[in-house]
Design brief:
about 290 residues; alpha/beta; Rossmann fold; Glucose Oxidase, domain 1; 6-stranded parallel sheet; about 20% strand; glycoprotein; signal; Peptidase S8/S53 domain-containing protein
């Protein structure tokens, strides 16, 4: 039984088809709330709780006051750990195959302690995380999957380990330099993101017919007949300030080395009215990350 942070229960990764009864040793509950009823628990998602004390009001306003996951992070990490096997999946035809978690037959219990944007001290706190860990120990989980930057110095995790619960933390997304790894307490398992042996090459054609091969999740729609040329404009770091006063409407923006997370940069470009973005980087970096 795996404990996770927030979930979207309708995902096929959490189907309970073929599962037997919930184990008798399970002591958890199914806490109902906004957008979450007792029917959202199942033989796969066997329990759910949420903890909102001390969370900033602006974070709660953009989330469900329940175990339901609003920003997708808890859902994708839960499916990575314990998602059921889902056949014939792809991203618009890319990467076709079967999706499954590391332990696809494991049960899942949800302990939502991180809220809204999932970033900063206002989205969660020591109290919410420690309360979640305490309940997970009491409920009988075997593994706690905590894909977050620890705000409680891992002493709550030490208590769980002493009770026989394996605690898995994320190394966070500040790499690849080893000195930026977080959650390094010796009593937890710290897991870093890994690369995949797959690429999604895309050719960029310039007005002078020069072609440059990069990578992209862009794809042609079923009714697409081809691409059209758009003006290319240099956006520098593509921060909101650097784009201020630059007319990029309807144009493709070239962003150099960026300092903000890629989703923030993309939002800056789209908010400025651009039609596309090309991200140039001097060394290999994955722009789509957890």
């Amino acid at each position: 039984m795996v404990g996770a942070l927030g979930i979207w229960p309708e995902s096929r990764s959490f189907s309970d088809e073929g599962y037997g009864p919930v184990p008798s040793r399970w002591k958890g509950v199914c806490q109902v709330g906004e957008g979450w009823g007792s029917n959202n628990c199942s033989r796969k998602i066997i329990g759910a709780r949420f903890y909102s004390a001390g969370v900033a009001e602006e974070e709660l306003k953009i989330d469900y006051l329940s175990p339901r996951d609003a920003n997708g992070h808890g859902t994708h990490t839960a499916s990575t750990a314990a998602g059921s096997v889902v056949e014939a999946v792809s991203f618009h035809g890319l990467g076709a195959g079967a999706a499954r978690g590391g332990a696809p037959r494991a049960r899942i219990a949800v302990y939502k302690a991180i809220w809204g944007s999932g970033r900063g001290a206002g989205a969660g706190n020591t109290a919410t995380l420690l309360a979640a860990i305490d309940d997970a120990i009491h409920d009988g989980v075997d593994v706690l999957s905590l894909s977050l930057a620890s705000v409680e110095n891992s002493f709550g995790a030490l208590h769980a380990v002493q009770k026989g619960v394996a605690v898995v933390y994320a190394a966070t997304n500040f790499g690849p330099a080893s000195q930026v790894v977080r959650n390094t307490a010796p009593w937890v398992i710290t897991v870093a993101a890994s690369q995949i042996d797959r690429s999604f090459p895309t050719t960029v054609t310039l007005g002078n017919k020069q072609q440059i091969v990069g990578q992209s999740m862009y794809y042609y729609g079923k009714n697409s007949t081809g691409s059209s040329f758009r003006p290319l404009v240099h956006g520098g770091l593509c921060t909101a300030d650097s784009l201020n006063g630059t007319d990029v409407r309807g144009q493709v923006v070239l962003c150099a080395y960026i300092t903000a997370p890629f989703p923030v940069t993309l939002k800056n470009v789209l908010d400025a009215g651009a039609s596309g973005l090309i991200f140039a980087q001097y060394y290999n970096i994955h722009i789509i990350y957890a």
